[in-house]
Write a structure and sequence with these properties.
By secondary structure, the protein is of the alpha/beta class. The chain contains 6 helices and 5 strands; from the N terminus they run βαβαβαβαβαα. It is 43% helix and 14% strand. The structure holds D-ribose.
Length: 155
Protein backbone atom coordinates (compact mmCIF):
# COMPACT_ATOMS: atom_id res chain seq x y z
CA UNK A 1 0.00 0.00 0.00
CA UNK A 2 1.15 3.55 -0.71
CA UNK A 3 0.90 5.90 2.25
CA UNK A 4 0.69 9.49 1.04
CA UNK A 5 0.68 12.81 2.86
CA UNK A 6 1.75 16.42 2.54
CA UNK A 7 2.10 19.59 4.54
CA UNK A 8 0.15 22.69 3.46
CA UNK A 9 2.48 23.37 0.51
CA UNK A 10 1.84 20.02 -1.12
CA UNK A 11 -1.91 19.58 -1.10
CA UNK A 12 -2.38 20.23 -4.84
CA UNK A 13 0.51 17.98 -5.79
CA UNK A 14 -0.80 15.30 -3.45
CA UNK A 15 -4.21 15.42 -5.19
CA UNK A 16 -2.52 15.02 -8.56
CA UNK A 17 -0.61 11.96 -7.38
CA UNK A 18 -3.69 10.50 -5.71
CA UNK A 19 -5.59 10.79 -9.02
CA UNK A 20 -2.79 8.89 -10.70
CA UNK A 21 -2.84 6.16 -8.03
CA UNK A 22 -6.61 5.89 -8.20
CA UNK A 23 -6.72 5.74 -12.01
CA UNK A 24 -4.08 3.03 -12.00
CA UNK A 25 -5.83 1.02 -9.27
CA UNK A 26 -2.84 1.33 -6.95
CA UNK A 27 -3.89 0.90 -3.36
CA UNK A 28 -3.19 4.00 -1.27
CA UNK A 29 -4.06 5.69 1.99
CA UNK A 30 -4.08 9.47 2.26
CA UNK A 31 -3.09 10.20 5.85
CA UNK A 32 -3.19 14.00 5.80
CA UNK A 33 -5.57 16.88 5.13
CA UNK A 34 -7.10 18.07 1.91
CA UNK A 35 -7.03 21.68 3.01
CA UNK A 36 -4.70 23.96 4.93
CA UNK A 37 -4.85 23.58 8.67
CA UNK A 38 -2.88 25.25 11.39
CA UNK A 39 -0.08 23.10 12.63
CA UNK A 40 0.27 20.84 9.61
CA UNK A 41 4.05 21.29 9.74
CA UNK A 42 6.20 18.77 7.95
CA UNK A 43 7.68 17.07 11.08
CA UNK A 44 4.20 16.06 12.23
CA UNK A 45 3.24 14.96 8.73
CA UNK A 46 6.45 12.93 8.54
CA UNK A 47 5.61 11.28 11.83
CA UNK A 48 2.13 10.27 10.63
CA UNK A 49 3.43 8.89 7.32
CA UNK A 50 6.33 6.98 8.91
CA UNK A 51 4.07 5.41 11.52
CA UNK A 52 1.80 4.05 8.78
CA UNK A 53 4.62 2.96 6.47
CA UNK A 54 6.22 0.92 9.25
CA UNK A 55 3.04 -1.07 9.84
CA UNK A 56 3.72 -3.34 6.86
CA UNK A 57 7.04 -4.11 5.20
CA UNK A 58 5.43 -3.86 1.78
CA UNK A 59 4.23 -0.32 2.37
CA UNK A 60 5.85 2.62 0.65
CA UNK A 61 5.36 6.29 1.46
CA UNK A 62 5.10 9.49 -0.54
CA UNK A 63 5.84 12.55 1.57
CA UNK A 64 5.48 16.07 0.20
CA UNK A 65 6.58 19.44 1.52
CA UNK A 66 7.77 22.62 -0.21
CA UNK A 67 11.14 21.31 -1.26
CA UNK A 68 11.01 17.69 -0.13
CA UNK A 69 13.99 18.45 2.07
CA UNK A 70 12.39 19.20 5.43
CA UNK A 71 10.11 16.20 5.31
CA UNK A 72 12.97 13.91 4.27
CA UNK A 73 15.11 15.11 7.19
CA UNK A 74 12.23 14.45 9.56
CA UNK A 75 11.38 11.04 8.07
CA UNK A 76 14.99 9.92 8.25
CA UNK A 77 14.99 10.43 12.02
CA UNK A 78 12.63 7.49 12.32
CA UNK A 79 14.19 4.07 12.83
CA UNK A 80 13.58 1.84 9.83
CA UNK A 81 12.80 4.67 7.45
CA UNK A 82 14.92 5.36 4.40
CA UNK A 83 13.49 8.49 2.81
CA UNK A 84 14.82 9.86 -0.47
CA UNK A 85 14.22 13.24 -2.09
CA UNK A 86 14.05 12.51 -5.79
CA UNK A 87 13.94 15.06 -8.61
CA UNK A 88 14.23 12.60 -11.47
CA UNK A 89 13.00 9.17 -12.50
CA UNK A 90 16.57 7.92 -12.28
CA UNK A 91 16.96 9.04 -8.67
CA UNK A 92 13.68 7.35 -7.80
CA UNK A 93 14.76 4.15 -9.54
CA UNK A 94 18.12 4.04 -7.80
CA UNK A 95 16.68 4.96 -4.41
CA UNK A 96 14.70 1.71 -4.62
CA UNK A 97 17.32 -0.51 -6.26
CA UNK A 98 20.35 0.53 -4.19
CA UNK A 99 18.98 2.08 -1.02
CA UNK A 100 15.71 0.21 -0.61
CA UNK A 101 14.11 3.58 0.09
CA UNK A 102 10.69 3.21 1.63
CA UNK A 103 9.59 6.85 1.37
CA UNK A 104 9.74 9.09 -1.69
CA UNK A 105 9.95 12.79 -0.81
CA UNK A 106 8.77 15.36 -3.32
CA UNK A 107 8.99 19.15 -3.33
CA UNK A 108 5.78 20.89 -4.30
CA UNK A 109 7.33 24.33 -4.73
CA UNK A 110 10.06 23.42 -7.16
CA UNK A 111 9.52 25.34 -10.36
CA UNK A 112 11.89 23.63 -12.74
CA UNK A 113 10.62 21.01 -15.10
CA UNK A 114 12.79 18.57 -13.20
CA UNK A 115 10.03 18.16 -10.70
CA UNK A 116 6.50 19.36 -10.80
CA UNK A 117 5.71 18.26 -14.34
CA UNK A 118 7.48 15.00 -13.68
CA UNK A 119 5.98 14.16 -10.31
CA UNK A 120 3.92 11.34 -11.76
CA UNK A 121 6.79 9.74 -13.65
CA UNK A 122 9.03 10.01 -10.58
CA UNK A 123 6.28 8.38 -8.51
CA UNK A 124 5.83 5.70 -11.14
CA UNK A 125 9.54 4.96 -11.16
CA UNK A 126 9.63 4.75 -7.36
CA UNK A 127 6.71 2.35 -7.19
CA UNK A 128 7.82 0.10 -10.04
CA UNK A 129 11.43 -0.47 -9.10
CA UNK A 130 12.59 -2.91 -6.46
CA UNK A 131 15.51 -3.39 -4.13
CA UNK A 132 18.41 -5.26 -5.75
CA UNK A 133 19.79 -6.64 -2.47
CA UNK A 134 23.16 -8.39 -2.88
CA UNK A 135 26.07 -6.02 -2.31
CA UNK A 136 23.71 -3.31 -1.08
CA UNK A 137 22.75 -5.39 1.93
CA UNK A 138 26.12 -4.71 3.53
CA UNK A 139 25.64 -0.95 3.14
CA UNK A 140 22.11 -0.96 4.51
CA UNK A 141 23.37 -2.95 7.46
CA UNK A 142 25.90 -0.18 8.13
CA UNK A 143 23.10 2.40 8.03
CA UNK A 144 21.20 0.27 10.52
CA UNK A 145 24.29 0.25 12.76
CA UNK A 146 24.44 4.05 12.64
CA UNK A 147 20.77 4.24 13.47
CA UNK A 148 21.23 1.94 16.45
CA UNK A 149 24.39 3.65 17.66
CA UNK A 150 22.75 7.04 17.93
CA UNK A 151 19.55 5.66 19.38
CA UNK A 152 21.63 4.19 22.14
CA UNK A 153 23.28 7.55 22.76
CA UNK A 154 26.70 6.38 21.56
CA UNK A 155 29.24 8.53 19.73
C1 LIG B 1 6.80 25.25 4.74
O1 LIG B 1 6.63 26.60 4.53
C2 LIG B 1 8.09 24.78 4.14
O2 LIG B 1 9.16 25.23 4.90
C3 LIG B 1 8.11 23.28 4.05
O3 LIG B 1 7.08 22.84 3.23
C4 LIG B 1 9.35 22.64 3.47
O4 LIG B 1 9.68 23.16 2.24
C5 LIG B 1 10.51 22.51 4.33
O5 LIG B 1 11.52 21.90 3.97
Amino acid sequence: MIIIGSDHTGIELKKKIISYLYENKIEYADVTNFKNQDGDDYPGIARTICTEVLKDKNNLGIAICGTGIGISIACNKVRGIRAAVCTSEYMAEMSRKDNNANILCLGARLKNSDRKENAISITNSFINNFYDGGRHERRLKKIKELENMYLEGGR
